[in-house]
User: Fold this.
Amino acid sequence: MSQKFIPKEFEKIVRTYLKRAELSEEFYLRCIDELKKVELHKITEDDVRRVIEQFLIMWGEMRRVLSQKKRKCWQKRLAMKIREIANLLKNFRKKDLLESSDKELNELKKDIESCYSAIKEIIGPTSAAKTLHMIAPNFFPLWDSKIRDSHGIKGTDERAYFHFMQRILNDWSKRKDYLKRISEEFGESKLRIIDIYNWLEGKKDTCY
Assistant:
């Protein structure tokens, strides 16, 4: 975190965002719920187009990136890759980043980096994090260039993403009981509340 943590200010920031972005947040939750219904080892290109593509483009604003020539047929390639690593991803679906210990996270390092790297190769770093978050919303945090900058993260490779996850765990694990309380109040997961705060921190120089 880039500044001293003040609970009342934190809650005000998140509450204001959720009020302003109510429709956007409903869409986010709908997409998360829809992907939960998909068996990852059977995911199809149509599933990717119906859920993940809509999430990345309409919610994640990734149309320009995903329209690049090097991303051609990314929907088909992503479906194939998710099926290939489905067992790892299904394991992550059961996990909560903020309930993990440093030791537990480090034991998962190889698998985390492998999944992130495989998906990043197809759709890029920001879309990869968004896709992993859709699949395991309590474990994989969202990031983009501004969030990376605000956290002092250099690079976008798998090591950088794992380091970002470590930062989230180290910054917030001592406040997980507090986060649990306000997550129940706001109707959002603990990690989603952190994601909102991180995103707003990254945009603090704008007029959002």
About this structure: The chain is about 70% helix and 0% strand. Residues 22-36 form the longest helix (15 residues). The mean pLDDT is 93. Residues 20 and 198 are 17 Å apart (CA to CA).
